[in-house]
Structure to design on (353 residues):
């Protein structure tokens, strides 16, 4: 289908449509390469043939080159908030596919974009908090925590999530929100230590800061680096460093105060608890993966798939870490050996007579 060249006003309208789409993708956790390809595809589907897209960490720029001797039409949009929402990202990808395949008109696509942009998140805020608390409790179970520590991790994560959410709503930088959240989890661990409960306080800290870890940002940084968007990859990597530094600062601050008050800080590496058996750990791995997907506003149909993926990944890692598992050895006349005997012994070769 051949589309006539739009005038300048219509070009600005199409560029704004593509920029709004790219903003939802970039803020929802998509990589720079996906945002670039999507914005260009949308502009071309709406009649703008020569479009240049530039994506940085906080902005998207589109330029429509009308002719070599005419100034291009350029529009810029800033991405101020970044909240992973894979339901919106999925809906945007479906919208783009329908428009590019000419199953809908540009006007219908713009109307659908308005609906997606103004639609609320698929889960209420308290459901997301429950997902994050389930993630922390499942991680505690995977680390060998008992019932008491698992319950404490669940309750602590609820407090951390509500506190960091309130700070983010007040536009406080994520560095300070992560520091406060890590300080809350560490304070609970120190209180458990003071109470002299027969638990591992380190598990409370580890499970309490799981939701603060910038996993989505780290994955996006690696994806952008592989795709050649080194500027965006560097910005994402530095954000990972800053957010991690906030977590470390919160933990270190509370431990320093506790040490000044004479609290004995001990770390044990002995596994503890009653949830270390294989069936419960398999369930914990499934719940952790599904809860992590739900905390990122993944579509409901994707939650069972995410849980199954987590179960398979845990099963593979459990099989590899099992003492009786085998590994491959160098092929030069050596046989496979077990994890208990890490060195391979040469085979005895019989000469043929």
């Amino acid at each position: 289908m051949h589309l006539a060249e739009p005038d300048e006003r219509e070009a600005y309208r199409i560029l704004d449509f593509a920029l709004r789409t790219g903003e939802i993708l970039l803020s929802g956790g998509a990589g720079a390469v996906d945002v670039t390809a999507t914005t260009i595809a949308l502009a071309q589907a709406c009649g703008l043939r020569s479009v240049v897209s530039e994506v940085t960490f906080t902005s998207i720029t589109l330029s429509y080159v009308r002719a070599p001797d005419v100034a291009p039409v350029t529009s810029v949009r800033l991405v101020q908030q970044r909240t992973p929402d894979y339901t919106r990202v999925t809906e945007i990808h479906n919208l783009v596919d329908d428009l590019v395949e000419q199953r809908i008109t540009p006007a219908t696509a713009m109307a659908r974009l308005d609906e997606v942009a103004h639609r609320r998140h698929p889960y209420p805020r308290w459901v997301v908090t429950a997902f994050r608390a389930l993630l922390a409790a499942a991680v505690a179970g995977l680390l060998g925590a008992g019932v008491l520590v698992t319950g404490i991790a669940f309750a602590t994560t609820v407090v951390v999530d509500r506190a960091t959410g309130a700070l983010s709503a007040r536009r406080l930088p994520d560095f300070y929100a992560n520091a406060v959240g890590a300080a809350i989890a560490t304070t609970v661990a120190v209180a458990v230590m003071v109470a002299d409960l027969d638990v591992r306080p380190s598990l409370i800290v580890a499970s309490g800061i799981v939701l603060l870890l910038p996993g989505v940002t780290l994955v996006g940084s690696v994806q952008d680096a592989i795709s050649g968007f080194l500027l965006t990859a560097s910005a994402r990597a530095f954000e990972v460093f800053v957010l991690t530094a906030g977590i470390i600062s919160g933990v270190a601050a509370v431990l320093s105060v506790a040490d000044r008050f004479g609290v004995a800080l001990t770390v044990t590496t002995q596994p503890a608890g009653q949830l270390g058996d294989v069936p419960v750990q398999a369930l914990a791995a499934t719940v952790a993966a599904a809860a992590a997907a739900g905390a990122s506003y993944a579509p409901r149909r994707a939650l069972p798939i995410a849980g199954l993926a987590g179960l398979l990944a845990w099963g593979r890692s459990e099989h590899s870490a099992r003492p009786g598992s085998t590994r491959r050895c160098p092929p030069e006349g050596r046989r496979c050996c077990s994890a208990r005997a890490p060195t391979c012994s040469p085979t005895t070769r019989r000469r043929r007579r």
The chain has two domains: 8-118, 127-271. The chain has twelve helices and five strands. The mean pLDDT is 82.
